[in-house]
Amino acid sequence: MMNSTPTEPHFTANRSAAIRALLVNIAEPGTPENLRLRRARRVRIVVPAVIATLVLTAGAVVAVQAQVTRTDHINCFARAELNMWGEFPGARVTSLEGTIGDSEGGPVSINDALAACSDLWAQHALDASIESGVRSDPVDRTFSYPVPDPLTVCVMSDGMAAVIPGASGVCGRLGLAERAK
Amino acid sequence: MPPCRTLLSMDTFDSRATDSALWLHVRGGNGRAFGVLFDRHRDRVFGHSLRLVRTQAAAEDVTAMVFLEAWRCRTRVRFVDESILGWLLVTTNNVARNQLRSGLRHQRLLRRLPPPDFVPDHSEAVLDAIDLDSTGNKVQRAFAHLNSRDQQILLLCVLEDLSMTDVSRLLRIPSGTVKSRLFRAKRHLALVLNEYNPIQPSPSVAGEST
Description:
The complex is a heterodimer.
Chain A (H helix, E strand, L loop, with lengths): L12 H15 L4 H32 L6 E8 L12 E5 L15 H13 L28 E5 L4 E6 L3 H5 L3 E2 L3
Parallel strand pairs in A: 1-4
Antiparallel strand pairs in A: 1-2, 3-4, 3-5
Helix pairs in contact in A: 1-2
Chain B lengths: L18 H9 L3 H22 L3 H17 L12 H13 L1 H7 L1 H4 L12 H22 L3 H12 L4 H8 L3 H22 L6 H7 L1
């Protein structure tokens, strides 16, 4: 209908035979055509995998080198979870810039960030079993609720400290930097 | 006595087997089974390609690319009532639309094919084509007004005579959607064709109105 001509065209015999032979060879394991397509497929799978690995490795290298540069807030994670929009279960503790860390207003010390979030845990303000990670009911004023051990200080992309339940590898797992020593 | 069970070797197959049975052999590395499928569906794929591209040589290339795509996507090929034909036809639409991209993908293999036949004198064919041009171009232009999904449904249901159920299974859309899109595509085609060739009132009717 669209492109038909009065004399119905037929598939050229020698091209048909060549295509048929090509297809037969492609499907037969071990033939050059088959190996070529399989190699091309392996390249398509392996190259992106290598690139992804390099990107992840590069991220890990960056992770050990980051410093806390924002001292106005500390992010206290209830669970080791972080979504692509930077949201996490837990609370953000506000502090006055410069009052946390050393006397010259330098980077937040690990102990200060840990202490701030440990306080929240001890008051049972953080709860890993709640979706938001934060309890809305009155907190434990006796400061007797168990604090997860270990807690690790990571650095978020905006330079804020994040205190997360888990060992040092938890930062890399969430794509965050570890605080540089 | 327990029944004797025979394991079918991947090297042996019945050439009258269904497409889906043959495809198992193709996936198992039996090239001859792929050859049988090519013999079985080559002409339908070629005929369909001819409607979508301008030359016979291009249609032959598209046919080759469709079968190469079948092997490339061999784990994802869909069968309707054991037949691969519908999938091949849908793929023909896609390959013809993305001929350049598909061609690049299989460039090295296609280069091995013999060049298209030399046509010494094509004046007859040109004259025939000119005769057809007036209607053929109109249809083609009207067809081009449809979106690609409607084109696909129209080609498969009307020209390839596949049932709406088969098309719905192939395209993974409800059969009601196929029906409504087909109706819409036909109506649109009719409207556009009438724009090119509006129905003229007969002289008697014209006389009555004046």
